[in-house]
From TrEMBL:
Originating gene: ffh
Compartments it resides in: Cell inner membrane; Cytoplasm
Main location: membrane
Family matches, as Pfam families: SRP54, SRP54_N, SRP_SPB
PANTHER family, per the entry: SIGNAL RECOGNITION PARTICLE 54K PROTEIN SRP54, SIGNAL RECOGNITION PARTICLE SUBUNIT SRP54
Catalytic activity: GTP + H2O = GDP + phosphate + H(+)
Topology with respect to the bilayer: Peripheral membrane protein
Protein name: Signal recognition particle protein
Domain topic, free-text comment: Composed of three domains: the N-terminal N domain, which is responsible for interactions with the ribosome, the central G domain, which binds GTP, and the C-terminal M domain, which binds the RNA and the signal sequence of the RNC.
Chain sites annotated for binding GTP: 104-111, 187-191, 245-248
Assembly description: Part of the signal recognition particle protein translocation system, which is composed of SRP and FtsY. SRP is a ribonucleoprotein composed of Ffh and a 4.5S RNA molecule.
CDD domains per UniProt: SRP_G
Keywords: Cytoplasm, GTP-binding, Hydrolase, Nucleotide-binding, Ribonucleoprotein, RNA-binding, Signal recognition particle
HAMAP family: SRP54
Amino acid sequence: LSERLSGVFDRLTKQGALSDEDVKTALREVRVALLEADVSLPVARDFIKTVQEKATGQAVTKSVTPGQQVVKIVHDALVDVLRGEGDPGKLKIDNPPAPILMVGLQGSGKTTTTAKLAKRMKEKDGKRVLMASLDTNRPAAMEQLAILGAQIGVDTLPIVKGENPVQIARRAKTQASLGGYDVYMLDTAGRLHIDAELIQQAADVRDVANPRETLLVVDGLTGQDAVNVATEFDDKIGVTGVVLTRMDGDGRGGAALSMRAVTGKPIRFVGIGEKMDAIETFEPERVAGRILGMGDIVSLVEKAQETIEAEQAEKMMKRMMKGQFNMNDLRMQLEQMIQMGGMQGMMGMMPGMGKMAKQVEEAGFDDKILKQQIALIQSMTKKERANPQILQASRKKRIAKGAGMEVSDLNKLMKMHRQMGDMMKKMGRMGKGGLLKQAMK
Ligand code: GDP
Ligand code: MG
């Protein structure tokens, strides 16, 4: 996908404000990216429409292409949709014992997530947690929770054969109060598909426990189906948040966007592996980058916006077109390069440029050289910087010595300056259709 998108961007090289056509071309690709990431069609359609209105006519930051700029706009809009209200990592666990109900389909990761969250609350919040398995369908499921509990040092409710989920929930509640626990977690049974019995069971348990949090656990790889599951559970049980599991896999996380857009429920945590520590608070930026698969371009645009002051660059370009490219201009350019992560950093961020970044590295053209060149320029007087042509042998010696370098280093810098100046003069002369003129529109 990255490749296809960068292909489109290459064609969109003129700069200025985003035209209708730029936006449409880029958004066609973004739409494909969304669908490939399992965002549902109506959600993708709505989303694209919003972005289209936002993007058209927006000014393009110099040094990035319109396509890149659209991706940044799309990314920010994704983050807006994904971000719920409040702090996703903060569970309501005051007023002990606070019940937390875990629901979801079979195999979505409920039991694992129950234990991960219990460990987190124990370690981060210093809470005493009791976990209870309500999975009466599979005796092995109860064992599974007990084993995880022993592993992380969290108590589990003793298993009593023959009880139904509601009875277990009651016992957990009593035990949590008597035992002085801060939190008790109810890990329910799942089904492969949602059905009336499963929902009824979860509703009965909810009525007994009156949970402070009802977390829906959803497999991040399931895609489209996740939206139906989330809608159904929320309608019938009422959920306070979603946990997306298996985000360590190949899934793109599009389900997250659909779920947010359709149910409005906040995503709270993300499961990123089978181990007990493999859980993170949900970060919309990360998932947005993943859905687009274009995280690098987003950071490139952000950096460009941070470091380049459009006005300053424009002034410089005007001077350069007249062939007045002096050492101060060169220094500004070198400094901008360093700010943007140096040559390698910049190229590494551009799709398809990774190889070139490596060549640059091998050629020894790194930040150190940029800094040396800046030091040489700093060693010049004001007059010398504005008119580098006055640099004769004695001045050169003084400048090189001042910067702790050789005259040959200074000669290299001057050669580079001359070549850049020549190139810019040529581009400036191309007249109205010239590259630089067009870039300044
Ligand atoms: P439940 O049926 O909903 O209780 O699901 P389980 O908690 O038993 O999890 C089913 C399987 O998914 C187990 O093998 C877990 O180790 C695995 N699993 C759960 N969460 C994650 C995750 O975030 N990443 C990965 N890679 N595996 C997970
Ligand atoms: Mg389970």
